[in-house]
Amino acid sequence: MSNWLWQNASDLGRGIGAGQIDPVDLAEAYLEAASAHEHGPRIYARLTPERARAEAMAARDRAKNGVRRGLLDGVPLSWKDLFDTAGVVTEAGSMLLEGRVPDTDADVLQRATRAGLVCLGKTHMSELAFSGLGLNPAYGGNTDPLPATPPNVNDRDCVPGGSSSGAAASVAYGLASAGIGSDTGGSVRVPAAWNDLVGLKTTHGRLSLHGVVPLAESFDTVGPLCRTVEDCAELLAVMEGSKPADLRGASLQGARFLVLEPYSGDVRKAPGAAFSAAVDRLAQAGAKIETGTVAGIAEAMDLSPVLFATEGYGTWRDVIEAAPDKMYARILERFRGGADFSAPDFVAAWRKLRALRRVWAAETAGYDAVLLPSVPNLPPHIERLMTDAQYYVTENLLTLRNTRVGNLMNLCGLTLPAGVPSCGLMMLAPPMAEERLLRLGAAAEAALA
């Protein structure tokens, strides 16, 4: 059974379908591993064993009767603690929401449940999802100084990436077959990259946000963190209620990619070298690689403070200001930055961004995808982040720089392990082009293996 913990979700589903894996035994193996793991309490905010066992028993019955609901029927997942779960505390990593118990599941969780997937529990996250680092010292119990900061799989003294920190750690440490997270500025792709996983940022609006605790609803998206591209394709289909992308015969032969400058060159040494080597592998597999920039992308990036912080603070201002002492100072400061801009500033920024999105679409129309290093830096050290305020700000902004391109331009994005620990290759494609992106990703995954 211990081998099951390290299999990808699709292979587990095939094992269930072949009668080689009992869904109840599988759920119990994950629950036991999560309960016994030394970092389990720093990865899971709470397990849902009763729900998991009931769902696994139903999946076992369907498998025995030959009426499975799909490939992933009976496969256990983790869910970031901003997806509502009926009757179970959902606090989005913040003591501001302490004791919040929803009445119903989030839409995407409802769809996953109808497809037969098993909910193992809720994973820790950055406070209200407003950080790319995964550091959360303000949430949880008092016995551990960092009770809600999961460890990075490659260096336990470093942050795992956020805000879907626990989602990534649950998969990387073998405590879930896959994790479901959210991505507003990089919150799926950063922790996926830093923990050597595959992460899919979906197009804004493709998956329902109903029952998802918001950060900035104009940018919030839902996406999976997985071991393989196939798992991402299957989970997108599950959460949408559609058919998964057909990945058979996926090839890079003739695919045309734009390596985006300066975001691909202005990076730290290890991520830069890993990215260059990965791009070379894509070229060897038949891809055509060009390097260039897109007019207006720097201007769009400069709009980030007014767009993200203003909407985030507008969403949470009353709750925050009622009890600001419950928040980590760095996150509080970032939210309050949204008060620096007026309503006309916000409207003007959105008008400008929509125009720049049209420029991006026109200038990248001839490419299958745009390539960047997923994250320009390696995971920062936890202790220094806790003691050096300027370092925290600098590293957080740099961490989210490349992924934010996809959110600003309303793209879908996929990060793949680049072959060096905590380094990823990111592919960005036009909105609603996830199927095409996943085929490219499957071919790239094979080339990088």
Automatic annotation (TrEMBL):
Specify whether Transport is a keyword of the entry: no
Question: What GO MF annotations does this protein's record show?
Answer: transferase activity
Keyword annotations for this protein, in alphabetical order, are: Transferase
What the entry lists under InterPro entries is as follows: Amidase, Amidase_CS, Amidase_dom, AS_sf
Check the record and name the SUPFAM superfamilies matching this protein: Amidase signature (AS) enzymes (SSF75304)
- Write down a Pfam family by its short name: Amidase
Q: Which PROSITE patterns match?
A: AMIDASES
Start and end residues of each Amidase domain? 26-438
UniProt-listed Gene3D superfamilies: Amidase signature (AS) domain
The keyword Transferase appears for this protein? yes
The molecule here is called Aspartyl-tRNA(Asn)/glutamyl-tRNA(Gln) amidotransferase subunit A
The uppermost taxa in this organism's lineage are: Bacteria, Pseudomonadati, Pseudomonadota, Alphaproteobacteria, Rhodobacterales
